[in-house]
Every structure is written in C-alpha cells, then in structure tokens.
Model the fold of this input.
Amino acid sequence: MHHQSNVTYRYDGSFDGLLCCVFESYDKKEIPTDILLPDAASLLLFPEKRIVTDLEKANRVLASIPKKIGFPALEFIRHAFLTYLPQKELAILRFLRLGYQRGPAVMQMLADETVNILFKAVRHLERESHLFKGFVRFSVINQVLVAEIEPKNFVLPLLVQHFCERFPEEKFLIYDKKHGMALVYQPYKPMVIPVEELELPEPDQEEQAYRELWKVFYDTIAIQGRYNPQCRMNHMPKRYWKYLTEFAGTFQKPHRKLTAADGNSRLVVSGGMLTIEGTAVAVNGCGDD
Amino acid sequence: MDVFDKLKILTDAAKYDVACTSSGVNKKAGAGQIGSAAASGICHSFSADGRCISLLKVLMTNVCIYDCQYCVNRRSNDTPRTFFTPRELAELTINFYRRNYIEGLFLSSGVLKNPDYTCEQLIEALRILRKEYRFNGYIHVKAIPGADNRLTDQLGLLADRMSINIELPSQSSLQLLAPDKTKQSILAPMGYIQNRIQENSTDLVKYRHVPKFVPAGQSTQMIIGATPDSDFQILNLTESLYKKYKLKRVFFSAYMPVAENSLLPTPDTEPPLWREHRLYQADWLLRFYGFSANELLDQQHQSFNPFVDPKCNWALNHREFFPVEVNRAPYEDLLRVPGIGVNSAKRIIVARRMTTLRFDSLKKLGVVLKRAKYFITCSGKTADGLKFTQQAVLQALMSEKTLAMYRTNASLESHSKQLSLFEQPLLALPKLLREGIQQCITSPM
Done:
C-alpha cells in the first residue's frame, strides 16, 4: 500500500527529474502532497524534499514503464508532461502508480478520476498543437521562415514532425514566446532550444506585399450574407489572433524589437547568438543543452 | 491590372464554392520538394462567416461562355473580368504556402473560349507548381465538363482531388436555371473520373510506380434553396452519389441571391442556412453513423424538422429503439443516441471493458448527458431525478437559440414564411414535433 505523506517534493523541472520523483515515491513508500518546480512558492507548511536528478534512477523508471504499463502509456505521460495542467507532476505520479498496479489496462480506464484528468489535459494539448499546424504564420526574412506563437501548452515538440515534413529544404524558426523556447530547423536538423528574446529585421517589400495579398484574400473570401463572428470565434478564439497575418493592425506587437538597420542574414537572440546563414545554425550559450 | 486586383476579383468569384477541406490524403515532401498533406485536413484560418480557410480558393478566370442564371460569372452579368496567368497563380500559391497561410490550392475556373482551352490553362498552372516548384502539397481542381478525356486525365494526375459540381439537385431545376447544362453532362465526367480512380487503384496494386490519379478522391456540391427540391430528394441524391460514384464528400451551399431573375427567389430572400445546416448534419449521419436517407426522411416527411437535429428527430420518432443500455449496447446502437457522438461512443466501448459505467462516468467521457439521459440506461437504471416533462425534453434536445425561437411566435412566423418556398406545410412542423415529444413522454421507458 502506498501512503499519502505530509511531504512535498521539489525537482528541477525536467522529465528525468520527474522520473526521479517517481523513484523516490516508491523508494520511501510515500506519495507527496505536491511536486514543485525550483522557483515555485510552497503554499503548504509540509516539509520539503529536494529531489536530485539522477540519470541512473530516471532510466530505471523509464525502462520500467513500457515493460509494466506499455509504450502507449509512456507516450501518454510524455505528452502529459507538456501540458499546462496545474500540478501535472503529481497527476503523472498518481497515473504511474495506478499503472504499475493495473498494467496496460490503465490506458482504458478513461472514466477513472486519476486517468481522466490527464486524458483531458493531453487532449487539450493535442487539439492545441493541431490548431497551431494551421495558425503559425511565417515571415520570410533573409530566406529564413520565422514565426512567433504563444500557446498555452508546450506544443513545439508536437510540431516538429509536421513542419519538417512540410519544409524539408527550408530554414525555419518557430519561437514560443510563452515558454521561451524555439524550434529551429535547417535542412534535416531540427532542434528545440531555449531562447530568451527574438530580434528581427523589418520585413522587406516582398514580405509586406504577400502579407497584404493574404489580407486581400482573407477579407474577400467571406460571404457577407453569412457573416457569423460567433462561429469564427468558436473555431479560432481571439487569443490566437495576435500573430495571425490576416488580423495585422488589429493588435499591436509591442514586444518585438525591429532592427531595421543591419537587415542582413542574422537572427539575433539574446542570451546567446543564433545565426542562420548559409548552411550552419550556430547556437552558443543557449542554456542547458 | 495588378495581382492585388486580380486576386480580389478571382477570389470574390470563387467564394461561393463550398469545398475547402484539405483532407483525404497523407503525404510528406521528399528531398528537394516542398509540401505535405494530412489526411485529417488542416484549417489555417476562419473567415468572418465562420468557414474554414485551408486552401487558396480562386478562379483561373471569371470569363465564362455559359449563362447559368444562379451564377455570378454568367456571361450576361456585368462584372469586371480578368484571369491569372498560370505562372502568376503558381507563384502566389507557393508564396502563401511557404508562409503557412494555406494547405494548398483550390482551383476552379469559368470557361474561357472552350472547355479544352480552359483545361489546358489549369494543367499548365499545376504543371509549374508540381514540376518547377516541386510542390507536394494539396491541390483540389475542378474538372471542366466538356473537356477532352485526355486533358481530364492529365489534370487528374497533377491534382489530389477533383470535383464537378452537380449545382442543382434535379434535372428539372437544371433545365430551369442552367439550360446549358444537363444531368448527363455532369454525371458523365463524374463517372469517367470514378472509373479512372478505380483503374488507377488496380494499377497501383500491380505496379508500384504508377502515378496517382486524384488520390484524395472526388467531391461535389449543390445549391440548396434556389429551386423547390425537397430535403428528402436532396438527401437521397446525396446517398446515391456516395454509393454509385464513391464520392468522398457532398457539399451543400445555401443559395445566396447574387442575381435577379424571375425564376429565382427574390434578392431579399434570406439564405436557408438552417436547411444547409440540417443537411450537413444528416450527411454526417450517412457517412459516420450508419443511417440511411430513408430512415431520416420519407415521402410523408420531406423536410427536416427545423427545431431539432435529424438524429434527435429520428430518436423522438423511434421510441421503440430506446433505452439503450450503455454497458452492453453495440457501437452502432450507441451511435444512435442523441448526445453520443463517434468519439464518445468509441470511448464508451474502451472504458466499459474496465469498469461498469455510471452516469457520472459518461460525463467524463464526453457524452452530452443533457440530451442522452432520456435515451439510455446504466446497468438498467435511468438517470436520477429524470423528469419527462415536455419542457424538459424540449430544452434538452434544442439549442438555447432554437428554443428561444420556438417560444416566440414572431420568429415562428418568419420561419414559416421562409419555409413556404418549399412544398412542406410548415406550420405543421412544430405540431409534428409536439406530437413526437408527446409520444416520447407518454410511452413507457
């Protein structure tokens, strides 16, 4: 039997770190009241335990999941880890504990509270990532396709395959402002890296022209007699509009620094330099990978 | 004329075409190519009328030798005319595609000079896209009725989907409004394309490298409400198109008055959007829910009930089928319950292997209990506190908006006015509904 304990865990925020929390939970036969990120404030007065990420422990847990609960369950918690579900760490821990008890059948227990809460969160993530396959808007800047998004969930890993299959020969960058990460691709080499800020040169004439052409198309394609803003809003909620070219001018983009002066084939990323030119993507000092 | 004006004119002329899905084919760009396609389709935007935008939907030209009365591009209409050169069109497509504005191209055209010449222009645009730009994304192209079969062949080898519009649901309506077209002139090329798809799929089994002919299949559309065809006729036609021509989709388009003509509804006529909506709901029931057209409508009931959707309507009239026991019923029976859709039915099947489902678990699986609870049992029990009052069932089966309309006599009258374009005695409809509900309440569970 496992026991609810009056202890909270604090981990480093990585997937391996979370697996170590699972290890600890089994090792000490305890279920923490919460699992916190390094900088999260603890609202509870329970004692706190710092869980150190130990790759050996993490790998033991990782290997046991497909063996005991199956590959779909592993894929499922990997996705669950990308969601913005509050206390997702605790939910994943509970799910795994249930999985070790019940085996692969846990994936079918859709009506179970522990499973259902993750199931819904993952469905939200998958829906949102599907929407972004359509709602990402690239600008062509010095032959590089550049886009910004602000998703609720961390969808970038789920977009990698789609955009690589779409533009295998292009260089592109999708910057997730919310999570401070970017998907950077140059032919046949995708990377997801931390990025603090993105500085872009002013769009050139051709880019401006295509944005305007797209607006012309967007404004013309609607049939006036069928005007239905509510229906549009259901399919494309307003939080997505900010970066959609067709609504340019509807929103300001105050966060973007436009550096008109240099306008050469360099994309500057603070906290490191991200250069996309010729064939090389050089990433220096960009965080922890 | 610059490309901005051309785009405006040729988009404006193309916007009444309904199909905009990029679905039905799965492929990714190979080395040196650009463009992929997802079988589920991807919407890139939604226009102010709430419709999905996934393709650059334009005409090659809005010049046309025909004079179809319902069409904005008819010869006799006084409107600015223009055309894209094949290269202009290809460039526009590829530049929109790179910026992720679109999933591909939907190309239609007025008939310029003659069908063969028009078809050649389309082929050239697609050739530039496919061979020069090495574009591997989605292309939906309109077949040009009357063009040589060899040209249709070439076009089909460059496209993912092809379609020919039925336009109007019956021969008599066609005769009235599109005298240059006959049922035969539409169905013949549709049959030809169907044969080519069939042949191609057999060839693909035998030889690996046969080029694919319209791999995402064929679709069509028809206009609703310009002519007196009933929902029953339209739905039957739809069903036979799926069966006979193996169409992937049939689209419906509520008639928007774009032309003044004594044969057409007056320009101030409201487009029958609710009818279009009901037809789409019924179409869904045909394709994914195992219903047949004759179950949804029949000779006595030729029009859809405007107040409840076709599935609820069917359920109200088939009390003998219910209640359905969610812990035992086969998938097909679950699908017939109002409030249970394809996804929730599948989840029920999965989840009930592990546990006996109760009403609160159904809610977690996405079942709309508000509607479903009148038609199901969980382990033989009905929902707690279930009230079978007329008001309760009505509220459950109607949307709030419809319910509000149902309650105000004023809008009932406007409904009947709109409906009276067709042959159904419409004031009878709410009565019919009342009877259905009465029956539903009085019959034993």
User: Anything to note?
Assistant: DSSP finds 18 helices and ten strands in chain B.
